[in-house]
Amino acid sequence: MALPYAASPYVLSLLLLLSIPAVFLLAPRLLPPKTLPAIPDADETDDLALFRRAVLLSSAPSKDSSAGAGSSSLFGRRPPPKVAFLFLTNSDLVFSPLWEKYFAGHHHLLNLYVHADPNAAAFTAPDTPSFRGHVIRGSKATQRASATLISAARRLLATALLDDPSNHFFALLSQSCIPLHPFPTFYRALVSDNGGPRRRHRSFIEILDNEPTLHDRYYARGDDVMLPEVPYDSFRVGSQFFVLVRRHAVMVVRDRRLWNKFKLPCLTKRKDSCYPEEHYFPTLLDMQDPQGCTKFTLTRVNWTDSVDGHPHTYQPEEVSGELIRDLRKSNATHSYMFARKFAPGCLKPLMEIAESVILRD
């Protein structure tokens, strides 16, 4: 006697069709989630050794030269505080001729450090007096949507801390950044800002807690992965480019607790929400010294027509004195001092207005 339905090809086909959606629904729960590549152990070991040396040899916070505007205007026997310009790049520094003009006559107040991705075959060290010989040893590969960009910034900070005890301000920039004001204007803005605790200089770093993408970014590494070190209410977002004071630079290279969370790779399926370099620095500083930060950046970025997470890229035909003056405008106490993102072809028109606009207030 034949079993009812069992031999029916229509029933079997129906069951097969019904099982396909179930497979798609259950598979993500049964299979481990794929993740982006992690930081190589060898790179992590090298970095830890560098960071330990930087912390041990750096000035203690109590001896920080950031006592206030009075000490920065009358330096006494102390050398004036210097600005460490930290360039993080994976391509040629095409705007080095413009920066050369910007630095001219002020080298006693600044130092330069360049972290160039060794995997960027097109990179050629700038052959200009300011940049020559300033590509740091130990530069390592960087990758978007990974903590390698945090590591590179920390390497630059540690190198600058070790190199010169007079480095007091640490300005992180990219290859697509340009200056908007002459150097003396930027320097005065830094040394005159002493609104932090005990009238110390503050760091200029964007710190936001109400961005609409914050939820997705917090869970980019998986559910509850950031706990207990980084509760959701403490998670922040901000620009990856900043100006840190020395005590905060030491704080960053000394950190292990938060780094152990932020260095974890994101899930591939959440790659679009993985921008760890925009979270690690503002979260760390807001958790440890919120009053010591201005909570806004000095680098102007245009996000009005962003593509794939990249901001607007200015083209040569957009460059003008009017554009520079417009980019300077800010709702904060200080105007913007730098701007990105500029296409390489902008060098020529920028050089044409350098003396008349960029290097003149």
TrEMBL record:
It comes from the Eukaryota. Signal peptide: none annotated. GO terms for cellular component: membrane. Keywords: Glycoprotein, Glycosyltransferase, Membrane, Transferase, Transmembrane, Transmembrane helix. The chain crosses the membrane at residues 6-27. It is a single-pass type II membrane protein. The keyword Ribonucleoprotein does not apply. One of its GO terms (molecular function) is glycosyltransferase activity. It is found in: Membrane. InterPro entries: BC10-like, Glyco_trans_14. Pfam families: Branch (PF02485). PANTHER family: CORE-2/I-BRANCHING BETA-1,6-N-ACETYLGLUCOSAMINYLTRANSFERASE FAMILY PROTEIN-RELATED, EXPRESSED PROTEIN. This is Uncharacterized protein. It comes from Oryza brachyantha.
